[in-house]
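Q: What structure does this chain adopt?
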Amino acid sequence: MKNRSRPVLHLPRTPLETLLEGLTVLGLIAVIAVTAWGWLILPAIIPTHYGFSGAPNAYGGKGSLLTIPILSVCLTVLLAVLSRFPHRYNYPCQITEENAPRQYALALLLMCWIMLEIVWTLCGLQWAIIQAAQSHVGGNAILLAAMAMVVVLMVTIILYLRAAARAR
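A:
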């Protein structure tokens, strides 16, 4: 079934979705606060890249700290806008009039979880970057934060796919 023939439903926000969105906004505030703190405590030149050994191999201005909060805000806004159009998503099953409310609700919940996880893992990544730049030690914590983000997102997507398959 093509996207154009899917039912367009306007589902009310659940309390869980509202909670997740609130925690996402709190995460955005945390990313900005961590960045501001790093901006104040770090010198003008900081490590901007780490090699496989964890040792810094490139340096630059602390303006590079702005990448993560900008990315966090842009991704959150993008996902919030996309969450208004669940009838346009790709689903693992055919969408019918009968299963559309269940599938759309699961997809909207997935978007809320992904927004939350991205923002908070980016906050952790920013914290790790600032700690590594401040202590002049390796960037192993940065690698761990990035790997954690990938694992958390993969687990969330797998759980969604299982739930969507059950809600056919």
